[in-house]
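Our preliminary data section would be incomplete without showing what the modeling component actually yields. Below, a chain of 99 amino acids is followed by its predicted structure, encoded as tokens that our downstream tools consume directly.
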Amino acid sequence: MFVIGNFIEAIARIIDIGLSIYMWLIIIRALLSWVNPDPYNPIVILLYRTTEPVLYYIRRWIPLRGLGIDISTIVAILIIVFLQSFLVRSMLQIAVYFK
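Predicted structure:
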């Protein structure tokens, strides 16, 4: 049974690393929006293509366009922190159960 526990622990750690990387991508995108970067820069294009699907989905469900403030990045970071606190920790506790 320890193999299943190790597998679940490895998956939980991979999910945690992926969520951390995605959170940093969102933070970098928010910081870049303050300086108005070159939209044809390949790094900026990659950054926008990786973060826009999630942020667009959040903007669609939280319609605050009239305020002039885009809080989709804050909501996305809060969702990532929730997933790291709930999902990853739960998976790690399940992995301990199988060891």
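Residues 2-32 form the longest helix (31 residues). The two ends are 6 Å apart (CA to CA). Preliminary results of this kind motivate Aim 1 of the renewal.
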